[in-house]
Write a structure and sequence with these properties.
single chain, about 280 residues, two-stranded antiparallel sheet, 8 helices
Length: about 280
């Protein structure tokens, strides 16, 4: 309490007004708390508006091919892969094959939407701002014949980043094994099977789930049609959220291929994966 306020207290005739003011302040604070809680409950209770979601992993990147496999770079050069790389948040580019895959993904979306050409134009497009996903978005728009369309709502969303590989970012699996013994197990390493396992100074699948699912929930309440362009593990967490409402080790089992759209529609309050079209 300020010194000036303390000095004036003895001049008051009785302490009653102070007590009255304090109770009123407490009542006001309590009312504010109730209103905030009600507001939060209302936000949580907001109905899902979305009717369809398309999840698209980026096309093949330069980090994806196996060791020794030929890579056709976007600049036209041919070189052999040094092995699968833990890309994480790095700036790896698509290969020529990856760019072609992205265009075909857009063609597949257009075929699915042939009965309603407005749907894709009116959709909210959410994409990871990493280079390989931005390149994939461009290819998808070309394939869907939307590249010259004005007024598209294209929103970069950092919460759609791939899982951070931390200290192992941009290392091949073999290089990572020298830095972190757990990677000596290869596919049996904990980070490929346990949702709570994380790379050194990196993320676990559960970490990705928390950021990605919160982003998706916001969009579900605001948009009817959503297209998401992201990364393999991030999309696995979104599938776990939509289909099961939680993250656990089973999320690793979802199959998410390069630039093959996974379409979900909402029926009777449940999300259902539609059969592949055009693949």
């Amino acid at each position: 309490m300020p010194a000036s306020a303390v000095a004036t207290l003895p001049t008051l005739p009785t302490p009653r007004p102070i007590r009255h003011t304090t109770l009123r302040q407490r009542a006001s604070a309590l009312l504010c708390g109730v209103l905030l809680a009600a507001s939060a409950s209302f936000a949580i209770a907001q109905p899902v508006l979305a009717e369809r979601i398309d999840l698209i992993r980026h096309g093949e990147s330069e980090d994806n091919p196996d060791r020794g496999q030929a890579i056709a770079r976007l600049d036209g050069r041919l070189e052999n892969s040094r092995g699968k790389v833990l890309s994480g948040w790095n700036a790896s580019s698509l290969t020529l094959l990856g760019a072609s895959q992205a265009v075909k993904a857009g063609e597949a979306l257009r075929t699915q939407d042939s009965a309603d050409a407005r749907s894709l134009k009116e959709a909210l497009w959410l994409y990871s701002p990493l280079l390989r996903t931005r390149q994939t978005l461009s290819g998808v728009l070309v394939g869907a014949r939307l590249a010259n369309e004005t007024g598209l709502r294209l929103r970069p969303e950092p919460r759609l980043f791939e899982r951070s590989a931390g200290e192992l970012t941009s290392l091949t699996w073999e290089e990572a094994a020298l830095r972190w013994p757990e990677m000596q197990k290869g596919r049996d390493a904990s980070v490929f099977h346990q949702a709570t396992a994380a790379y050194p100074r990196g993320e676990s699948l559960a970490d990705v789930y928390r950021r990605a699912s919160s982003m998706l929930d916001e969009a579900l309440r605001e948009e009817k049609r959503i297209v998401v362009i992201s990364h393999e593990l991030t999309i696995k967490t979104l599938l776990a959220h939509l289909l099961r409402g939680q993250i656990d080790n089973s999320a690793f089992d979802y199959k998410v291929e390069n630039a093959k759209p996974i379409t979900l529609v909402r029926r009777d309050g449940q999300w259902i994966v539609q059969p592949e079209a055009g693949h």
